[in-house]
Amino acid sequence: MNLLQHPELLDRLASHYALGTLRGGARRRFEALAREQAPVRAAALIWQSRLASLNELQTQAAPPAAVWTRINNLVQGDKARATIQAARQAPAAPDAESGVGRWMRSLALWRGLSVTGALATVAAMVIGLGMRHELSSEIASLQTRLQSTPQIAYVAVLSDDKAAASMLVTFDPKSNKLTLQRVGAYQETSDRSLQLWALPPAGGPKSLGVLGSDKLLRLTAGESDVRDVPTLAISLEPKGGVPSETGPTGPVL
Amino acid sequence: MTGVHDNAAMTTENHDALLIVLLERVARQDEAALKALYDQCASKLYGLALRVVTQREWAEDVLQEAFLTIWRSAGDYRASLSPPMAWLGLIVRSRGLDMRRRRAADRAHLTQELDDTLSDTLEGDTPDPMDTAQASEQAWALHQCLGQLENKQREVVSLAYVRDLSHSELAQQLRLPLGTVKTWIRRGLDQLRVCMARFA
């Protein structure tokens, strides 16, 4: 039957299609017709936009304030990643190791957070990535660690290319101790070291320290090294790291 | 009613214009604009998320994912040719339906969802349960036409769309005979077709 000769039937089918109650074979046949005949497609689109208004007519409810905090943290993480990407492309960082280069990591640093805020950030990041189940045990251990170090002022989560948290960076302003903890499975090869950099808004990257093969690295860093720096980065360098003046030579992770 | 509608329509127009400006700024990665957009729309969108996924915790995740989507793809808004609230609502509903699918295997929540759904429906006895606050110009027409439906028809149509449910899923969730659900949906849509044709 030619639907175009039965405008009322077309309109009825289109309304059921848009509502979602046209299912199975009938739905597939309607979709096939819509692909062939523009008026059928148009009828479906009209009903889709009409019924989409149902979304706007639902009763309002105020979300808890924590939701905005989580969104904002994720947005800051997004911006930090963009900054790092720009930093990776802009300065002279000859990336010879293209093989490793695809293994990229980025680090976002949120500053001035209380321990609670830091936990919220870690949790928000993980939820945002839809990894809650996979990472719940990891979060539990992070929480324990964070709670046992109450002086923590800054926290950052380094995530790997599978978007799994793999390194936790914390800063304790009292003792000027910067701590890197491995929490994921990543391990660089034995002739390489991970080096932590501060990426100040002006000037070149500044080395903060080199992570050996240990699970944990404690560094002493001036607070200004960390406080004025929106982003940190980690690069893969020859074993032992490179001098601060030269900047990262290996891939920024 | 007409007078109220005229005033509200004026406000709606201004509100749409404000949201469009904010979306354009968000597309340029303006964080302050994202916050302003959130302040304008979060309650409306959270209400929708709640209606789709029924659980507060899930609705919070949905709202969060939706705003991250908005932050990353506000540049696509203009091409959608939609009123801003319609575009935002589609993002929230889509994230909400994703969430429902992810949780579909989790039968433990089914009982609670049934209860929520039932209470939704019973509340449908109030004369005008659809909320036009923040609604775009386009939504006003639908609101007018929905107002002519019986409460139960309106509720079933609304639930079918917002949660993307089939006739049999609706019958199961509302504990109604399949034939009844089909009849309500058919009559509801028929009335909407006649009514909406006047706004076309």
Distance between the termini of chain B: 21 Å
- Helices of chain B, by number, come to 9
* Poorly predicted ranges of chain B: 121-127
Fraction of residues in β-strands of chain A: 15-25%
Mean pLDDT of chain B: 85
The CATH superfamily of the largest domain in chain B is: RNA polymerase sigma factor, region 2, helix turn helix motif
Q: How does this model look, in words?
A:
Chain A has 253 residues and is an alpha+beta fold. Chain A has eight helices and eight strands. Chain A starts with 6 loop residues before the first helix and ends in a 15-residue tail after the last strand. By secondary structure, chain B is an all-alpha fold. Chain B folds into two domains: 1-105, RNA polymerase sigma factor, region 2, helix turn helix motif (Rna Polymerase Sigma Factor, Chain: A, Orthogonal Bundle); 108-200, Orthogonal Bundle (Arc Repressor Mutant, subunit A), CATH 1.10.10. Helices cover 76% and strands 0% of the residues of chain B. In chain B, helix 1 crosses helix 2 (31-53), helix 2 packs antiparallel against helix 3 and helix 8 (167-174) crosses helix 9. Chain B is globular. Classes of the chains: A alpha+beta (253), B mainly alpha (200). The interface between A and B is large, with 39 and 61 residues.
What's the topology here?
The complex is a heterodimer of chains A (253) and B (200).
Chain A: H1 7-19, H2 24-36, H3 38-52, H4 65-89, H5 98-101, E1 106-110, H6 115-128, H7 132-147, E2 154-159, E3 165-172, E4 177-182, E5 192-199, E6 206-211, E7 216-220, H8 223-227, E8 231-238
Antiparallel strand pairs in A: 1-2, 2-3, 3-4, 4-7, 5-6, 5-8
Chain B: H1 2-27, H2 31-53, H3 56-73, H4 84-103, H5 110-123, H6 137-146, H7 151-163, H8 167-174, H9 178-197
Helix pairs in contact in B: 1-2, 2-3, 2-4, 3-4, 6-9, 7-9, 8-9
Question: What are the main properties of this structure?
Answer:
heterodimer; A: 253 residues; alpha+beta; 5-stranded antiparallel beta sheet; 3-stranded antiparallel beta sheet; 8 helices; 8 strands; 21% strand; elongated; B: 200 residues; mainly alpha; Rna Polymerase Sigma Factor, Chain: A; Arc Repressor Mutant, subunit A; 2 domains
